[in-house]
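Fold this sequence, please.
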Amino acid sequence: MERSQNGGGPQFDPEWAHFLMKKTLLLIAVWILLVYYPNPLMLTGSIGRMIDPVQPGSVDDFAAILPEDPAEIERLTENYILVEDDWDQHGVFWYVPTAQEVVINARGNCKHRTVLLANVFEAKGIEYEYRVDPVHFWLDYDRKHIGEFEQNWESGKVPPADYWATSYRQMLWDDMPTYRKVLLIVGTIEIALIGMLLRKIKNKKS
């Protein structure tokens, strides 16, 4: 705020308001990130493994006890990995594990299975194509085994129009632990209120 030259009341300072708004929005964005990823390295590591899921030599011993047929390998890994979402296992809404983590924990979803398969196939010299879409990870290969879930994705079927929104709402909110929802809402409101308070303090000083 600035006082007018004719001695009137304080004037609105758009530059200060714009600066404060940007800082407030930045702090809210950082808070949201930290609520979803208390350890941001989990996100950066996941992005790297999404781009390249292979960690050479990481599961050679595990691969050695599996058969050579890729479809049989996938069937066995489906049975080996118990279904569990990322919130329950990793404490975040989206996480791409290492192959060793999958072998040790034997729990997860399509990301976990695909990472393990890719590393086993690499160890055995099996050719494959790595596939990712907004809600599913999988491998394509000769004589592929297609399970019940994959029939809706890997055979080329188009999901219902509202499937994407429903899936991400479930990951980002429905499956989120209650205490993290409280942190997200309360923290965002508090940051916004602090921004408003700072603006009022600046106005009074002007």
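The chain is about 55% helix and 10% strand. Confidence is low (pLDDT under 50) at residues 1-5.
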